[in-house]
Amino acid sequence: MKTVLDVRNLTTRFAGPSGALVAVNDVSFSLGEREILGLVGESGSGKSVTLRSLIRLLPSMAGQSGEVIWQGRDILNMSPKDLKAVRGGQISMIFQEPTTALNPVLPIGLQIDENLRAHTKLTHRERLIRARELMDLVGIPEAARRLSEYPHQFSGGMKQRAMIAIALASNPRLLLADEPTTALDVTIQDQILKLILDLRDELAMSVIFVTHDLGVVAATCDRMAVMYAGRIVETGTVADVFAQPMHAYTRGLLGSVPRVGTERSPLMSIEGTPPSLSAIPQGCAFHPRCDFATEICRATQPDTKMLAAEHQVACHNSLAVVKTGSPVR
Amino acid sequence: MSVAVSRRAAIPRPLIFGGVILAASLILAIFPALFAPYDPNAFDYAALLQAPSGTHLMGTDNFGRDVLSRVIHAYTIDMQIAIFATVFPFLIGTVIGALVGYIGGFAETLFGRVVDAVITFPFLVLVIAIVSILGPGLMNMYIAVGVVGWVFYARIIAAEVKVQKRLDYADAGRAMGYTHLRIIFRHLLPNAITPAVVYWMTDMALAILLGSSLGYLGLGAQPPAAEWGVQIADGKNFMATAWWISVFPGLAIVLTGLGFSLTGDGLAEVLRTKK
Amino acid sequence: MPLASFILRRLLQLIPTLIFILIVVFVLVRLLPGDPTSAILGDRALDADVERINRQLGLDRSLVVQFGVFVQSVFTGDLGRSISLKVPVTELIAQRLPITMLLTGMAALIALVLAVPLAFWAALYRGRAADTAIRGAFQVGLSMPVFYIGLILLTVFGAKLGWFPVGGYGDGFIDHLHHLFLPALTLALSLSAIIMRNLRSAIIGVVDAEYVQFARAKGISARLILLRHVLRNALISTVALFGLSIGTLLGGAVITETVFAVPGAGRLMVDSIYGRDYPVVQGLTIALAVLVSVTFLLTDLFQAWLDPRVAR
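Predict the joint structure of the above. Result:
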C-alpha cells in the first residue's frame, strides 16, 4: 500500500500560565492510500489535538515540532499560502458538533461555495452544479432548494451530511474526522458511518477517524492507534489489536466495549481518570491506573517496540498483557 | 501558601484603581474645606484669569476665583448628584422589577410597553422637558431622572428574578407557606440583585455626565454654585485665552467617571468568577 | 418568505408604539408650565380675548376630544404653528430635522469607522499592550461629557488651528459636511466607545467558535474568515446595541448643537422649551420619537438580514 501521510515525532505544546503543556507528545504514525485509521482514546488523551495539529489548526499560542509529511512535503514547514491550498483542498476536516461547526448566519450553499472558490477554477455556474452534486452525494434530498437554506433549518443528521458535503467539495485526498458521529442519535450514527465508508470507496480517499467509541473503530477502521496522555501507546490493524491487545490500557478499553445486544456505554470502566496535561505521571503515564504496573513503569517511559508485523506497542509489561489474552471473544 | 497568593491576586486591578479614586472623591466631597486652599466663591479682582501657578495651582477664573478650590468644592455637589440621581431609580426599579418578574404574565407585557416607550424617547430630551416643566435645579433634576431611570433597573431585576423564580428554593418557600412578599424580598431578590448593583456603578458615572450636562445648559445646579458642568460653562468663552477654567473641571469629571466605571467593571469581574 | 412576514410584523408593531408616543406627548405638553393662551396674549390679557383664543385653540373642549383632534391633525400632517416663530411646525421640522439627521448620521458613521477596526485589533491581540491602550483610551472617552469634548475640539481644531468652522451650518452640501464634522466627531466618541467595547467582546466570543475553526480548515483566505465568518456573527449583538444607542445619540445632539451653534432640531428643542413654544416642543418630540422608532425598525431589519434565525 502506498503511504500518503507520514507523521514523525509530532509534538504540540500549549503555553500555559505555569509553563508549557504538552498535549501531543512525540507521536509517529503513517497512513496508506484509501486506508481508514482510527485514533482512539479517552477525552483529554490528545487525539483531537493530534488531528488538528496535522493541518496546524491550533490557537496562536501553540507550538509544534516534528514532521507531517504529506505528498513529500512537510506541512509544519509550509508557507501560509501552501498551507491554505492543502487545507480544504487536499486535506479536509469534519467536526464533532455540526450545530456549532456550521456558520449559523450563512446558507449551506455559500458554505460549500467558498470551499470551491478557494480550491477550484470552476465558474459560478459550474460551482452551483457541483454543489448540487455534492448534496446528492451525501444524501440530502431536494438539493437545489436546500442549498439556499440555513443550518438551523436542517436536522442534526442532515447538518452532519451538509458538513461532509462542504468538506468534500474540492475532492480531498484525506479526510480528518473528529468524532463525527458522537453528537448524533444511534440510528443516524450508523447512516453517517456508512456514508463515510461509501465515500472513501467512491472518492478513493484516506480517512483518519478520531473517536472514543471502539464499536465505531471495529465497524469502520482498517488500522487503529490508541492514545494515552498525548502519546500513541499501541498501533496495529483493527483485527490484530482486538484479537490480541498488547498494552494494558488497550486491554482495559476493549474490556469496556459493550457486547452485541447490550447498550453502548462510555469508556470509563478503567479505574481512575486520565491525568491532566499539567500533571502527567513520571515513567509510563498509565502506571497509576495499571493492573500490570511494576517498578520500571514508575521510573522510565517505555520505548515503542514492534512486537508483531505492523503491531507496535509502548509497554514494559506487554508480555504479561499478552498472556492474559484479549477480553473480546 | 500558594492559595493565599492566588486569592490576593484575584482582586481585579480595575477594582483597586476604581476603589481608590472613589474613596478619594468621597473624602473630598465630605470635607472639601480641608483640602481647598481658598474660598471657592471669593472674588479677587486683583487676580483675574491667572494662569496656573504656585499660588493658584489651577489658575483663577474671570472673577478671580481659585479654580482648584472650586473643583474641590464641586465634589460635594457632583458626588451628591451621582448618588441621589441613581439611588431612587435603583430602589424604585428594584421593587417594581422584582414584582414584575415574580408576577410575570400581564405585568410583564405592560412593563414591556413602558420599556419600549422609554427607549423610544431620547433620555436627555425627556429629562430636559421634565426639568423645564418643574423648573431648573438639582431637586427637580433628581425627580426628572427618577421618572425615567427606574425602568432600566426594573428591566435588569425583572429578568433576573424570573430566572431565580424557576429555581427550586422558590418552590420550597411556597411549600413552607411563606407570603409572596417574603419570598420575593427575602429569598429571590438577594440572589437577583448583583447585576443591578454592577449597573448602578455605571449609572452613577452616567449621572455625573448628565448632571454636569444639565449644569452646562443651565438646567441643573445654579451658578454661582461650584459644579463641574457650571464651571465649564463659565469658562467656555475663555477657552482660547484661559483654558484652565474649563479644562480642569472636565478632568475631574473624567476621573470620577473612570472611578465609577472601573469599580463597576471590577465588581462584575469578581461576581462573575464567584459564580 | 420569512423575511417578508417579519418586516410586515415589525411594521405592524410600529402602530401601538406610535399611539403610545402620541399619548405621552399629549400628556407631557399639557403638563408644561403656563398655558399657550397666556403665552400668546401675555399676562395682562382681557378675559374675553382669553376665551376667544381658548376656543380657537380648542382648549375649551374635553381632554378626550382634544386628544382626538390632536391625533387627527397629526395624521393629516398638521402640527400647528410655532408661537414665537409664527410658521407651521411641520415647516420648521422639515428645515431643522434634516440637519440633525445629517449630524447623527455622520456621527454614527464616524463611530463605526473608529470602533470596528479598533475592536478587531483589540480583540485579536487581547491582553497585549495594544488592547490595553485601546480599551483605556475608550474608557476615558466614555467618561467625558459631550459638551466637554465639543468645547475642546472646538477650541483646538476650530479656534486655534482653524481647520474647521467654529459653528453654524454653512451653505451647500460640502460646506455642511465641513461645518458638521467637529460636532459629529464629538457625538461619535462616546458611541464608538460603547460599540468598541461590545464588538470587542463579541469578536472574542466568536473567534474561537467551531465554525471559525471549520472555516480555517477549509483553507479560505484570512480576510474572508474575518469579514464573513467573524465580523458578521459578532455584529449581530452590536447592531442591536447600535439601535438602542440612537436615542442617546439624539440626546447628545441637543447638547452638541448647543455647543457648536448648529441650527438643528436639538437646538430648536432647547430654544422652544425655554420659550414655552408648545406646538414646536410637541411636534419635535413626535418627530424625534418617530425617528427613533424607524431607526429601531431599520436596525432590526439589518439584524434579521445578518442573522436568519431572527426572522423566524
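The interface with chain A takes residues 208-211, 213-221, 224, 228-229, 232-233, 236, 306-309 of chain C (CB under 8 Å).
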